[in-house]
Known about the structure:
The chain has helices at residues 2-21, 87-99, 114-128, 167-176, 193-202, 216-224, 248-253, 270-280, 331-342, 346-360, and strands at residues 24-30, 36-42, 45-51, 62-65, 67-72, 74-75, 78-79, 102-110, 140-143, 181-186, 206-209, 229-230, 258-261, 286-287, 300-304, 307-311, 315-318, 323-327, 377-383, 386-394, 397-401.
Amino acid sequence: MKQSIFSILTLLLFSQLNMIDKPSAVSGTLYSDEGSVSIQMENGKISGIDRLEGSDSEEKLFIAPGLIDIQINGYMGVDFSGPDLTVEGVKKATRALWKAGVTSYFPTIITSDVDRLKKNFAILAQAKKDPEIGKSIPGFHLEGPYISPVAGFRGAHLEKYIKAPDWKEFSEIQAAAEGGIRLITVAPELEGAIPFIKKCVASGMIVSLGHHNGTAAEITAAVDAGARMATHLGNGCANMINRHHNPIWPQLADDRITPSIIADGFHLTKEEVRSFYKAKGPDNTILVSDALDLAGLPPGMYERGERMLELTPNVVKLPKENVLAGAASPINLCVGVVMDYTQCSLGDAIQMASTNPAEMMSLDDLGNISVGSRADLIVFSMNNNKMIIKETYVAGELVYSQP
Length: 403
Ligand SMILES: [Zn+2]
């Protein structure tokens, strides 16, 4: 009896060790050059990349670094800005995002009452430490409340909570987030915005300009102060703008600005996506979903916070104001749309949806496939520019496999 218990314990210990050290591998077509490869994973990292002879498999399966979405408001009914957010809800959203090939994301909280901001960032900070999902949450994005209060530019943000930048107040929000806010969207024309941007940059954050009506001079001053991005360029902007003097041209013209774009097929026209891409190129463009929590739910009218939202099959609208409230598509769909619109390669599209956001956010071991990088990988097929995710790995662990 004693002996059998001992052997069971030995077996358990052995299988545990085995789990930690067992190398695994995934084979397929490398996204960047379409060569056949086998990628070995060990202890959560990529431990080897072998080139293979061409494979004869019928369906071409690509391997790419996992997608990284730095602007996502919620998913599968879980609203990161909502009153009911829980760690369990963040887990649900994360697991659903793995199915869409997203291995890392920045939960985004939008303009809200400051108490709500603190409460929800504290919940996100807990989720970031969770052993199951924490690896997929490298940081958070705060969009607002320091943005333009003007209709059109403020988009779907609630006017009553919009205000001028306040470093003391922000520091309290950041403390509630346990320092996890790595990206902030700010309007450069607000009183005090430039010193605020300098403080954000000095504290190690990335500042993105968004929901603003800044002049060319104000945008330049913000970039001089260290702002590096433009949030969902072409959205968060009034429908009627001056053809010469508007916030879009200066952000396109300044090579120091990397815009994020919502290439979901609805937030920007094909011509806008093509023009932005031609101006910035695959090295300086970032794809984001800007998905709302309604993404993944059936179309219809939904009550959210203090308003009604309309979910169409493709996009979320504020019916009363007739403005877009957010997207309903995960970022893997945007990869296909940007390829369709710009005719860029799969490699370029993955660069914009994984490599570039990783580099912008200093996630050095993510967004690429090289020995020593974290084994965040996706295996997928492409069908008429639609990405169909087959497997998702986070730190070498299979977290999703298509049934
Ligand atoms: Zn926005």
